[in-house]
Design a protein that fits this description.
Elements lengths: L14 H17 L6 H13 L6 H26 L5 H34 L18 H29 L22 H11 L12 H12 L13
Helix pairs in contact: 1-2, 1-3, 3-4
């Protein structure tokens, strides 16, 4: 944001009249009619508040609430009367809502009168006057310093977010170093040892006659694949 060349004064607001203006602004829609624009409706709202002779700032709330309930009841009754095609139940419902709004307005005005009577019977000590709001001006140098501090804070915030995102990422698993597979050595290093083992385990084995059982033939085939020589010292191939 570029620095302004001139000071930007803030409009002072007197807190002693803030409640009055806030209440009047909310009453403007009730007074905005065809012959009254927004400025005229605002003056009408202030005039309606003055009609209740407010004695304290709290009276503005009760007066505004009383006016709002009363105006809403009047508007509801007028709309119900101006609509000819309303059925009897709808008319009775509209009149009941208007009557409830009227009771709320009377209750709000009654509570204001009770508070006034209590304050008249029990006068409160005078409060110190509220000092008027002072106008605040911001110089271009102050605006530039504020912008620099905001930019620095945003940079630190982005860096902290980046560090937090990096810490939340799971660590990448390192690939294990491949180990060389151990070389399988045949259980029988010589043909004699293979023949002796087969003779003791399987009586049906006859190496001299060249006759073998199906189980023995499978073992010989597996031994040939593993690089074990045959019974006669010759490596068999399948």
């Amino acid at each position: 944001m570029p620095a302004k060349t001139a000071a930007s004064p803030l409009s002072p607001v007197d807190p002693r009249i803030g409640l009055r203006f806030a209440a009047a602004e909310h009453l403007i829609p009730f007074f905005r009619i065809q012959i009254a624009d927004t400025p005229t409706a605002r003056r009408m709202a202030h005039s309606a508040l003055d009609a209740y002779y407010p004695e304290s700032r709290a009276d503005f709330i009760n007066a505004a609430r009383t006016i709002a309930f009363s105006m809403a009841a009047i508007a509801l009754l007028g709309k119900a009367t101006a609509t000819p095609n309303l059925t009897m139940p709808e008319q009775l419902r509209a009149y009941g809502c208007a009557n409830a709004l009227n009771r709320s307005a009377e209750q709000s005005e009654r509570s204001m009168m009770v508070r006034r009577a209590y304050l008249h019977a029990n006068p409160q000590p005078e409060r110190p006057p509220i000092p008027p709001a002072e106008s605040t001006t911001i110089s271009p140098q102050d605006e530039a310093e504020i912008e620099a501090r905001v930019a620095e804070a945003m940079q630190e915030y982005r860096a902290a977010c980046a560090r937090s995102a990096a810490e939340k990422q799971p660590p990448q698993a390192e690939a294990p170093n491949p180990q060389p597979a151990p070389s399988a050595e045949p259980p029988f290093r010589t043909p004699a040892s293979l023949e002796a083992a087969l003779r003791s385990a399987m009586p049906g084995f006859d190496a001299e006659a060249g006759r073998v059982t199906p189980i023995t033939d499978g073992l010989l085939r597996r031994g040939a694949r593993d690089g074990v020589p045959g019974p006669n010292g010759v490596q068999r191939t399948v």
